[in-house]
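Model it.
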Amino acid sequence: MLKADVAVIGAGAAGLSLAHRLSGHMPGARTPSVILVGAPPGPLRPAPRTWCFWECGRGRFDAAVRSQWRHLRVRPPVGRAIEGDIAPLSYKMIRSDDFEDVVARDLARSPNVRRLEATVDTVEEIPAGARVLMTRPDGRPHALEARWVFDSRPLGSLPAARTTLLQHFHGWFVHTARPAFDRGTAELMDFRTPQPADGLSFGYVLPTGSREALVEYTEFSPRVLTASGYEAAVGHYADDVLRLGDLEIVATETGVIPMTDAPMPRRAGASVFRIGAAGGATRPSTGYTFAGLQRQTRAVAAALRQGRTPVPPAAHSVRARTMDAVLLRALASGRIDGPALFSRLFARVPTVRLLRFLDGRTGLLEDLLVGLSTPVGPMLRTALELPGLPRRPFG
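Modeled.
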């Protein structure tokens, strides 16, 4: 029977971030013993993926940052592109493989963090905390007891919501035969893609060189596409919109992020908590998760080192989640035109302020100023109807 102060289930962004924040001794603070349980190779281990976020100056995981940009571009369906310098912020891209390598290197030197490979079967409460029942890769059962357990695994099903959309995407990492990209500018939203009947779509380009980039097709809609549908969509964007010409596809990535106003409980028991996307770290209106889970794991690590009950905080304020619920409902109902809305916001709101707003770091007055840049009538009608809408299971 293994024992530890803290068990972290899942070695994705949230689990690795929390283990990293708890690694090593800090003078004047408690140093809890930690066991990080990661899934063995197989279907429970997620495929390589890309995380993006923005922050000011140097960050904790800069060693894993593949590229970063100070200039963003949004393209409306027609008309001139909207461009903005985001200094002192930087838009940063981390590949999951790089992140895992950087964190693994640090954890290997940590005296208080141990890594374990196993499939977690159940987590049960016991008087002294919680017991994690697992199966090792060789099929042997195993158990771990911990005072606190933090579970970052994806939820089996989404809680009931008034509105749920899916942000689903497919991207190509490409190498072009000729220089085709502006290395200094990230294309955040390119709405020159064909728009679905019940949602919105856009292209997304993160250049890492004049001939290399991640080129992605993204939809906000109720249903995912087929594999051939995604390939056709990215192909159309690369060939007919960007006109990249001859290219080599070096790698691909596909993902689905729920965008929902469902409450995401962060506590699953007296000693068991959820972190990361499962604990509400995803911003419902954008799908960005990495920055939210960093706020969450930072607060949890501080509480553990100070000997306090480590309930993960909400990654986003009540006001931010309320505004997101209104936006999601307005998009899902067709009351507002998504490409027109986002283009309008980037055209009318200073880019740095808008990014701070999207990250939940603006005050009430700034939020109101951003709100006035949206179609006020449709948004107000949506806000008034929202409290009376029932919450239903997704799908």
